[in-house]
């Protein structure tokens, strides 16, 4: 009996030793990139999620770059991942979308954004949705409809904020953008609704890239609860609209209702709702972070603020009526502003990791990436590379002088790259530019508190960047 027990224990030890060995040395048809797979099950997850108070490349990545070089392997939330900080490698990953690599995000993302969100769809369905979004936020729509609406919203918001003793800028700009996008998508008006849709998205960015522990109190759990409530509201709204399909509101729901009425359509209600949810989140959370970061950088860099103000005041002076609305031509002429925006998104690194999955064994830079492994492209490592950007931690919009950046490049991937390049880029840039125009031509501001950047590994302003807005003497 005791011999049997010994043999059992011995076998158990052998199996677990072998399992640990396999964890640390995954199978591969070739040479894997260097790096550590961390502890069994946990991998290096805890270290990856540790908050970081610098604007520099996250310590998790920085330390491993030093130890292993620009491409290394790790394990995050139970998944083998190859992290790339190498511009050529990143470029290759983006260019091979749908062939060798495919857009893939950790389970936390798909649980929160829905299994059928645009980032997780591929092929025909993906192209169909992308076209829908481009119709809504592409250049034509921005020029013909959104420019005017964005400017109106910005003036209104600024005028309200200037009557308040302090404004939490991230919160205030997020609400401003959320309301604008929600109106455009679903004609949602917070003043007319008994439930607050925006409330469900609070604390989202913390939960999105967090440890996937779905128990009360965790950031992940809060996110999932928020999603449930928001989806319920969206589902109810869509059902009401489908009940009276001939009534037009001039929003995106009109389009969805018409599509769903067709006999031959690939769109389903679930896909449309997941898309709505993603667009609401993607539009307000990213742009409000970018705007808050811009105002913070301008506060800390008076010479940039001065130059930016000059650009906008000159445009006002050129008009017959200085208070007439912004035109598309004026918007396109704001060169320094676009440099400020580029520099902000380079330094703020709002999206700290872009994920893909290898569809087959891939040979690259002398390494093999086994099929099924995840790849994380790391934009901060590219944007803060001193060989490309001199004094990379310094906010210097002049470094963009003379460069035409409309898409992505090997050294600029704040909005991604390749086929999956962000469909909201133009919308974001327009909103930021219009807001800055209204802000610097009519107001000055005083920082009250907060503004410190903390990455978790997303970017947040934990104590809030509070400013007091003061009307300029005209
Ligand atoms: C500062 C603002 C923004 C930043 C930094 C940003 C960044 C990014 C990045 C890096 C990607 C690529 C993800 C990937 O390759 O997997 C992306 C994709 C995407 N973005 Fe943005 N974004 C911003 C604003 C917006 C806005 C305003 C919208 C909404 C209209 C939006 C909607 C999307 C969508 C739907 C995708 C998925 C596209 C696809 O899978 O092809 N983004 N964004």
From TrEMBL:
Cofactor(s) this protein cannot do without: heme
InterPro entries cross-referenced by the UniProt entry: Cyt_P450, Cyt_P450_CS, Cyt_P450_E_grp-IV, Cyt_P450_sf
Positions bound to heme: 422
Compartmental location: Membrane
Example GO BP: brassinosteroid homeostasis
One Pfam family per UniProt: p450
PANTHER family: CYTOCHROME P450 26 (PTHR24286), CYTOCHROME P450, FAMILY 87, SUBFAMILY A, POLYPEPTIDE 2 (PTHR24286:SF11)
Family: Belongs to the cytochrome P450 family.
Protein's name according to its UniProt entry: Cytochrome P450 87A3
Annotated organism of origin: Aristolochia fimbriata (White veined hardy Dutchman's pipe vine)
């Amino acid at each position: 009996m005791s011999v049997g027990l010994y043999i059992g224990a011995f076998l158990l030890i052998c199996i677990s030793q072998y399992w640990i060995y396999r964890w640390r040395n995954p199978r591969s048809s070739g040479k894997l990139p260097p790096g550590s797979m961390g502890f069994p099950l946990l991998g290096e997850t805890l270290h990856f999620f540790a908050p970081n108070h610098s604007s520099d490349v996250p310590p998790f990545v920085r330390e491993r770059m030093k130890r292993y070089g620009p491409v290394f392997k790790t394990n995050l939330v139970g998944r083998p991942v190859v992290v790339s900080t190498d511009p050529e490698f990143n470029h290759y990953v983006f260019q091979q979308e749908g062939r060798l690599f495919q857009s893939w995000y950790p389970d936390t993302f798909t649980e929160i954004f829905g299994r059928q969100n645009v980032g997780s769809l591929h092929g025909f369905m993906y192209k169909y949705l992308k076209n829908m979004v481009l119709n809504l936020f592409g250049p034509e729509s921005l020029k013909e409809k959104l420019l005017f609406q964005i400017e109106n919203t910005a003036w209104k918001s600024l005028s309200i904020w200037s009557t308040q003793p302090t404004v939490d800028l991230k919160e205030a700009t997020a609400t401003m953008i959320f309301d604008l996008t929600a109106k455009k998508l679903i004609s949602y008006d917070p003043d007319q609704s008994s439930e607050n849709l925006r409330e469900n998205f609070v604390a989202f960015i913390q939960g999105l890239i967090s440890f996937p522990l779905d128990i009360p109190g965790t950031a992940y759990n809060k996110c999932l609860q928020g999603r449930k409530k928001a989806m319920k509201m969206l589902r109810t709204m869509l059902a009401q609209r489908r009940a009276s399909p001939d009534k037009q509101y001039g929003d995106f729901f009109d389009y969805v209702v018409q599509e769903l009425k067709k006999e031959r359509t690939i769109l389903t209600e679930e896909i449309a709702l997941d898309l709505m949810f993603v667009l609401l989140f993607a539009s307000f959370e990213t742009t409000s972070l970018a705007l808050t970061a811009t105002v913070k950088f301008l506060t800390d860099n008076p010479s940039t603020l001065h130059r930016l103000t000059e650009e906008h005041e000159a445009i006002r002076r050129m008009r017959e009526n200085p208070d007439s609305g912004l035109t598309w031509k004026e918007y396109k002429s704001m060169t320094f502003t676009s440099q400020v925006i580029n520099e902000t998104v380079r330094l703020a690194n709002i999206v700290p990791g872009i994920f893909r999955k290898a569809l087959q064994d891939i040979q690259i830079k002398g390494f093999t990436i086994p099929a099924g492994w995840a790849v994380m492209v790391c934009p901060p490592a590219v944007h803060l590379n001193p060989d490309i950007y001199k004094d990379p931690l310094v906010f210097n919009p002049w470094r963009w002088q003379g460069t035409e950046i409309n898409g992505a490049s090997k050294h600029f991937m704040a909005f991604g790259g390749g086929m999956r390049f962000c469909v909201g880029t133009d919308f974001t840039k327009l909103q930021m530019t219009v807001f800055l125009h209204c802000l610097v031509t009519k107001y000055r501001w005083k920082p009250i508190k907060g503004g410190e950047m903390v990455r978790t590994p997303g970017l947040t302003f934990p104590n809030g960047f509070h400013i007091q807005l003061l009307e300029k003497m005209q």
